Amino acid sequence: MTRLIKPGRTFFAVAMAAFGFQYLIHTLFAAAPAPGPPWAPAPALWAYFTAIVSVVAAASIATKKQSRCAAILLAVTFFLRVLFVYLPRLVANIHDPGPWTSGSELLALCGAALVLAGISGLGRTLFAVSLVVFGVQHFIYGRFVATLVPSWIPAHLFWAYFVGAAFVAAAAAIATRIVGRLGATLLGLMFILWVFLLHLPRVAAAPHNGNEWTSLFVALAMSGSAFLIAETLHDHLTFWTARVPKK
After folding, report:
1. Has residue 37 got a pLDDT over 60?
2. 28, 35, 166, 175: which could join 128 in a potential S-S bond, CB 3.0 to 4.6 Å?
3. pLDDT the model gives residue 1
4. Among residues 163, 170, 149, 169, which one has the least CA distance to residue 225?
């Protein structure tokens, strides 16, 4: 299982670099059919700032040079975006699923960045909260989610609900640290499978669609995040072994 967890840092760094380049390309060539930006468009100054922070943080995390400072800056950047962009939209219309999805994605990545910075408890909590939102959305909007399942996979609605349940189960495992390492690792595997089975084919079919590129790199970042969190959860069987009666 340890070998499965090791790519987490690489996946996360590659995704952060991709988000940075998406913002940069979109800001420089807004009139061109370029992929981007991730999440909601931002004013030019904020877009440049996000791009620079994302790319620098990616390089720092990948090389492990000043990675703690870079991860903290990245976490703060993501959290401020949640606070000032998506929270007001939620307050304005709490039933709009868009801000819930995008805001929770950023909150999850903020949590992963905090884990990289060594602030594991808070990071895991933010990540777990985001997973609960994803899980609830899969149940509320199950029929829409089912349309995203590749046509060659049977029982689309079943998989939509199954993934929703998997999100909630993983959130509980991570938050309680009961089989948390296993839950986070399986979650990371699920996301990386989506990268190859779902998102890469969709990007290949629509290479100029910024949303498809963002979805691909979000899945990659979430996979890396889950693996990073799995690294911080070592005693995942403590709860169960403590209850095995001694002879």
Report:
1. no
2. 175
3. 52
4. 170
